[in-house]
Amino acid sequence: MQRIAKFEKVSFSQFEKDFKKSFGDSYDVKAVYDGIKLPLRATIGSAGYDFFAPVDLKLEKNSTLLVPTGIRARIDEGWVLNIFPRSGLGFKHRIQLDNTVGIIDSDYYGAENEGHIMIKISCDAYDENHSLCVEKSTGFAQGVFMPFGITEDDNATDNRLGGMGSTTKKG
User: Fold this and answer.
1) pTM of the full predicted structure?
2) What is the DSSP string of 67-129?
């Protein structure tokens, strides 16, 4: 098995800025930051690294929540980290990522937002009064590293400047 990446926390100042955008001032952000767990595989055969909820995540039917994970990933060139919802949450509660699959490129690590992995989830449950709570430190998403190739005539030369969605924006 190749070792091609390493998870790290973003700085406290980056996490605090992003966390307050989603959750306001209702938490002791330093305590939340100190409690962040780096993603882990559950078993030897697991492909996915579980991303853990930094706080209790409450979702009602048809609601959306942007979760700042406090995590970034240093990834070797030629690899990408794909983010998916945890299977059980998808089956039981129709939890899904708003962008379907999160794509974390290797150069995202050096972005202006420190490569902070933000995961936006929605609950699209069938029953009207459906609600869900993912408890703090419980896995809610999973990341799978995958190799990728490029075309023979690829000539990309630009470097990433910004954070999410910035690869098509020129600096």
Assistant:
1) 0.90
2) EE--EEEEE-TTEEEEEEE-HHHHHHH-EEETTSSEEE-GGGGGSTTTT--EEEEEE--SSTT
